[in-house]
Amino acid sequence: MASSAKDIQLRELKDIITGLKTMISEQTELIRPLRLVIDEKTSHEKALQEQVDYLTKKLFGSSSERRTDDIPGQQHLFDEAEAEQELSLLEEETVIQEHTRKKKATHEELFKGLKVEKVIIPFPEEDQVCPVCGMQMVLIGEEYVRRELEFIPTTCKVIEYYSQSYGCPSCKEGLGDTEKPVIVKSQVRRL
User: Fold this and answer.
1) Distance, CA of 74 to CA of 37 (rounded, Å)
2) What is the rounded CA–CA span in Å between residue 181 and residue 179?
3) For the chain (length 191 residues), average pLDDT per consecutive 10?
4) What are φ and ψ of residue 42, in 5° steps?
5) d(CA 118, CA 116)
6) What does the pLDDT read at residue 15?
7) Can you list the alpha helix ranges (DSSP code H) found in the chain?
8) I want to staple 172 with a disulfide (CB 3.0 to 4.6 A). Which of 9, 85, 178, 181 is the partner?
9) Could you give the CA distance from residue 179 to residue 134 in angstroms, rounded to a whole number?
């Protein structure tokens, strides 16, 4: 009985060994095409890297037209002219004279001598009443708004616009219903 149990065990081990051998051969067959794919991808990657290197050199490399390396099959057509060129021509120096730039003119310099017309944008009479206390407001100042250059054939003039500001004297002295003085300005029309 002991020998038959060993025989059975030996057969089982032989079956396991043959199964492992077939598994190894199947895996070896599976690995072969994968290695071919890897080799193909590696060669393709190498070709792409060469293209990237070439294009990077073209884009960011030196851009001189003078080449130091010899290109096979190309003759040196223009080397004779450089060799025969006189040395005295190369030694001449060219002197470039300095120049000064004109200073840009300011608006004051451009408009100097032109007639200036002052246009005051009126504040409507009905709006010159204090909205808080109802008292008549008085003129307290004017504010510069804009400057235009009007061209009339053969003449030019500068038109400066000012808006008027009105303040309530009653509210300014604290007699009105507000703590702050009431100030209003005339509205400027946009062009």
Assistant:
1) 40
2) 7
3) 81 94 94 94 95 91 65 62 58 75 82 85 85 85 85 81 86 72 79 63
4) -65, -45
5) 6
6) 94
7) 2-60, 79-84, 87-91, 107-111, 169-172
8) 181
9) 16
